């Protein structure tokens, strides 16, 4: 199987079966023994086509008299792949992009696909956008983000900030690693990575963060097997730092999976004290256990638990609580392309759940304790509004700080961190 055939197969599965692209691609790459160059092309095609889907579909609509819904799935996927290569991948020869796409479309649709791609080339490979450049429609096509989500961003952030944020979300950020200071130092980790030819540098904001350029598999990096680091975005690392944990504290992570924030908490506690990491889904807790074992963390206890439920034994018990609630994820479009097309209306019930979790978590906070409420979205109704609503109900709880991190401002995921304390 070639790189293009593999990418076509994965994209069709993502479209038809609504599979997550990272899981579908990883499974396909493990099954097929492609050389590194072919693996790289397959990966670029899958993620690139997903990220630019609305932009590509707009070109197809302009170049074709046939509605999108009348194009067969195989042909539509082949068209998107061909257009993506012609428009966004400079090193791919035109003839290779066209001929391979025609072959992927099948005999009956090959001529149609060939005509569309040749038409795009005749037009000078010029991408078309809606004429009104001050409209949500323009932003939707230009940055390949669903129209309802664009409208949501505009309502929350305004035109200039929305455009700047969407432009930043087009960029592929470096992989952020969090140094495991139980086993090594940031400087030693960077030295080890650099010695093996990797581009590694200290993060600007997170004190233990390392930024890694390139597309190397994380599990193949030096120090991975030894537990010298784990993957964690800078904003997520800053969320853990805001908790200001200390050795021998009693700490709680209410919604822990997949575990990176719990790992950071345990490391900052120097693996001393008590950390209970909870999650609603028991099937995910193995990720936390396995990650903790690789990192040499022994003081972490995992529990299956709904963060909204009461627990008499936990009342006012914990010195530190992380409340990283389920959210829409509308701050991490750069890393999760499927979220670009998610209708924000399906997340309208989340603030009620978030308020429930925050209320319950605050009941577990000891006097003088510290709680961090966080999300990976930039929408105020899941962030400031939730905190404000709950604070009105809790007379002895004070907001110490609140910070929204934006991709275009801070170079991190879109993230919200609020720090609260009980008098």
Task: Give your account of this protein's structure.
This protein has 17 helices and 11 strands. With 423 residues, the protein is α/β, with parallel strands linked by helices.
Which key terms come to mind for this protein?
single chain, about 425 residues, alpha/beta
Fraction of residues in helix: 40-55%
**Distance between termini?**
63 Å
Count all strands and give the number.
11
How is the biggest beta sheet arranged?
A: 7 strands, mixed
Shape: globular
Return Rg in Å: 23 Å
Helix count from the secondary structure assignment: 17
Q: Order of strands across the widest beta sheet?
A: 7-6-5-8-9-11-10
> Residue-averaged pLDDT, rounded?
95
Helix-and-strand structural type: alpha/beta
Beta strand %:
15-25%
